[in-house]
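Need residues for this backbone.
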């Protein structure tokens, strides 16, 4: 059976993402950015493969992407929503870091398994100073797998 695949233009590559985020394998959970509206919304893509280390123990013979990693993938895409425009302004981000402050309203609706292509959508709810509140969701095709509201802060290292 052939599946129709969404072809999306890449706005930011994995190499570009690594220039802004401190995360590296195995904890870099976004492969590319395909949409961004500076400080308002951002969409990233993550291709889930069986050879990722979490599947050795979660769960043997029945691999499921851990929910905490799905929430982290939303946080990484939301971070890029704020860091990409900051980098365009020439702001030195080498001495900055973004930390979770709260994670609320998390819902896990459908398991994510190896072979899934995740569409990670994030939107800014509000911001004040260096504190940001976001909503996010992870989709596979049209199915919502995970959704959450979370708060983070941009601070000095």
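Answer:
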């Amino acid at each position: 059976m052939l599946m129709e695949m969404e072809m999306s233009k890449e706005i930011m590559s994995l190499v570009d993402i690594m220039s802004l985020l401190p995360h590296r394998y195995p904890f870099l959970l976004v492969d590319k950015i395909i949409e961004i509206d500076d400080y308002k919304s951002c969409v990233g893509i993550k291709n889930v493969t069986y050879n990722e280390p979490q599947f050795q123990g979660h769960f043997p013979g029945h691999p499921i992407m851990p929910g905490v990693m799905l929430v982290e993938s939303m946080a990484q895409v939301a971070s890029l929503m704020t860091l990409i425009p900051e980098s365009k302004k020439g702001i030195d981000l080498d001495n900055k870091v973004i930390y979770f402050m709260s994670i609320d309203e998390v819902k896990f609706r459908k398991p994510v398994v190896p072979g899934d292509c995740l569409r990670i959508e994030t939107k800014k709810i509000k911001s004040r100073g260096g504190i940001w509140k976001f909503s996010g969701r992870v989709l596979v095709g049209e199915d919502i797998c995970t959704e959450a509201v979370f708060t983070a802060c941009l601070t000095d290292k």
